[in-house]
Amino acid sequence: MVDDSRAEEIADKVYNLYNGYTSGKEQQMAYNTLMEVPPPLLYRVQHHYNSHYEKFGDFVWRSEDELGPRKANLILHRVEKISNYCRSLLRSTNIRSRTDTMPYVDCRSEEGRPPSNTWHGSLHESRTSCMEKLISVQRNTYSNTKLR
């Protein structure tokens, strides 16, 4: 699940941290921010940063310049772990989040005594009741995706 608007906000925040006078505090804040986001979101941060601010230097170059090669490599290495299929989805021009409701069945044993791990316990008759419930699942929809 990737929150694309959050990725854009983080890209803006990182740009502002990189673009001003970069003290150790701003560098550490940018580093911490980028290390805290999951790799798919980091991929989108890089995408938004480059689409908005590339004229000031692309994300990789600016990260190496502002944070140093070691810290930049730690950040960028996390993106390399994303599968090719996932990368192709993350290249979409527009990623939207949506919530779907899906049914599932929840079954519970109505056995009066605590369950036992012995064979004898498994032979004991028990009644099971099942109930259909709904669960909300967040997912992304992708547009203009070129799967490679």
Order of helices and strands: HHHHHHEHE
Rg computed from alpha carbons, rounded to a whole number of angstroms: 23 Å
Structural class: alpha+beta
Give the DSSP E fraction (strand runs of 2 or more residues): 15-25%
Q: Mean pLDDT, as a whole number?
A: 84
Q: Helix segment count?
A: 7
Protein name: Astrotactin 2
Organism: Champsocephalus esox
Domain Astrotactin-2 C-terminal beta-hairpin: 95-141
Domain Annexin-like: 1-91
Comma- or semicolon-separated keywords:
148 residues, two-stranded antiparallel sheet, 51% helix, alpha+beta
Task: Please write out the topology.
Layout: H1 4-19, H2 24-36, H3 39-53, H4 59-67, H5 69-79, H6 84-90, E1 94-109, H7 119-123, E2 128-143
Antiparallel strand pairs: 1-2
Helix pairs in contact: 1-2, 1-3, 4-5
Pfam family, one: Annexin_2
Protein name: Astrotactin 2
Domain Annexin-like: 1-91
Quick structural summary:
Residues 95-141 form the Astrotactin-2 C-terminal beta-hairpin domain. The chain is built from 7 helices and 2 strands, in the order H-H-H-H-H-H-E-H-E.
Describe this structure in words.
The chain is α+β, with helices and mostly antiparallel strands and 148 residues long. The chain has 7 helices and 2 strands; from the N terminus they run H-H-H-H-H-H-E-H-E. A two-stranded antiparallel ribbon has the order 1-2. Helix 1 packs antiparallel against helix 2 and helix 1 packs across helix 3. The chain starts with a helix and ends in a 5-residue tail after the last strand. The model has no long low-confidence stretch (mean pLDDT 84). This is Astrotactin 2. One of its GO terms (biological process) is neuron migration. It comes from Champsocephalus esox (pike icefish). Pfam families: Annexin_2, ASTN_2_hairpin. One of its GO terms (cellular component) is membrane.
